[in-house]
Amino acid sequence: MTTDIASVKAIVFDTFGTVVDWRGSIIADLTQWGNDNGIDADWAQLVDAWRGRYEPQKDRVRRGEIAWTNIDDLHYEALCTLLPEFGLSNLSDAQRLHVNRVWHRLNAWPDAVAGLTRLKKRYVVGPLSNGNIALLVNMAKHAGLPWDSIFSCEHFQRYKPHPDTYLGVCRQMYLEPHEVIMCAAHNHDLDAARSVGLRAAFVPRPTEYGPGQTTDLEPCADWDVVASDLQDLATKMGV
């Protein structure tokens, strides 16, 4: 461990993509559900289109075009607009809710649980995620994520990369920004965290968006820590 990160007391994690494999999990879950219920669709294309609405929807909240709306509700709105394109207009309300709640049933990357378990021996660990509280709690239960606490943007009524999200964790934990390290597979998230004084750890997830991913394949700055996965992060953090 370098002296630059020796003062770190807490590690917060981007969750979608960094800790859990959202794309692979959703495709597998909905494929099985479709098979069990006789519902056929191109689930991979639906998932990609659904995720494609993610940033534009949050931008509407960020710009104040709509009031604060949590991720579950934004996901549901996007899903309902996409269903006709995939021949799924006839899904019942209960089926739509089940599909939308797939974000609560995401699986961790293979290294994540073991890496987090090691890290929490020395550090406070928790998600700093745009996901809402219920989503993050249910996901942790499903995937076995050993969080010490949940830091949801719902607490702050702001979406990342607003400074209030990163600094909100510091305030809640009575820590200075340099005592918190943000871990993410997305360079822009780390850039925002560093801009308000947090440390930054990059862990690449080169298949987060599928085999054709072209972004965030490597660090784009001299982050405090660069690790191959969360097990490697634990090693580099001295655990």
Automatic annotation (TrEMBL):
Sorted UniProt keywords: Hydrolase
Catalytic activity: an (S)-2-haloacid + H2O = a (2R)-2-hydroxycarboxylate + a halide anion + H(+)
Pfam families, per the entry: Hydrolase
EC assignment: 3.8.1.2
GO molecular function terms listed in the Swiss-Prot or TrEMBL record: (S)-2-haloacid dehalogenase activity
Job of this protein: Catalyzes the hydrolytic dehalogenation of small (S)-2-haloalkanoic acids to yield the corresponding (R)-2-hydroxyalkanoic acids.
PANTHER family in the record: HALOACID DEHALOGENASE, TYPE II (AFU_ORTHOLOGUE AFUA_2G07750)-RELATED, HYDROLASE, HALOACID DELAHOGENASE-RELATED
Protein name: (S)-2-haloacid dehalogenase
Organism expressing this protein natively: Pandoraea cepalis
Gene: dhlB_2
